[in-house]
Amino acid sequence: MLGSASLASGVATYATSALTAGTHSITAAYAGDSNFSALTSAALSEGVQDFSLVISTSGGGTTSVTATPGGEAAYPLVVTPLDGSKFPGLVTFSVKGLPSGATGTFTPASLPANSGTTNVQLTVILPSLSAARSHRSPFRGGPMTLGFGLILLPFVGRLRQSSVIWRSRLLSGWLSVALPVIAVAASLVGLAGCASRSSGFFTQPSQTYTLIITANSGSLSHSTTVTLTVE
What we know:
alpha+beta; Immunoglobulin-like; five-stranded mixed β-sheet; four-stranded antiparallel β-sheet; 13 strands; elongated
């Protein structure tokens, strides 16, 4: 028995969310009283429809994707009606947990009512490394700061104390030291740009994000979790 309800002006109303997807045979029964006899209604066929949302494993689909800044990550999904060949409601999609500056796009963006089993792809577009660091000063940290610090440090005190005559001599000596240091600093900057994707002195460590993909239709909501590693 699903439950019971009291009569009010000859009408009893009962609501439930306990029915699973599929077809159910439901009857209403009245136990009877001193005025009315017991009675059971004819069976009513009630169809409950639902859908599933999973990663599509066909074609190499996976729940874990690795991408680089400025690149893309694709997650193939499949939406399947659980009872019958079509789902009667509109299905919309959303994703949470994206890296800062990244965007997620679903293709198709939604499924209209009465859609059958449908393949859907989530594409995550990552911001470039330069865009992610655009708010930072170009001389904040890193080999450029180190290079200029090495160049200027030995001469700060001496420049303040030098006379006009000695400044010319000091400049000559400064250049003989500064030029090799500048070359070393430039080499460090070049190495930073050409560093491999693995974690190291010049690179950002890889970071893994947990993405929650959700499909909604009215009060129905189904989610699946995937991971995105940015190197």
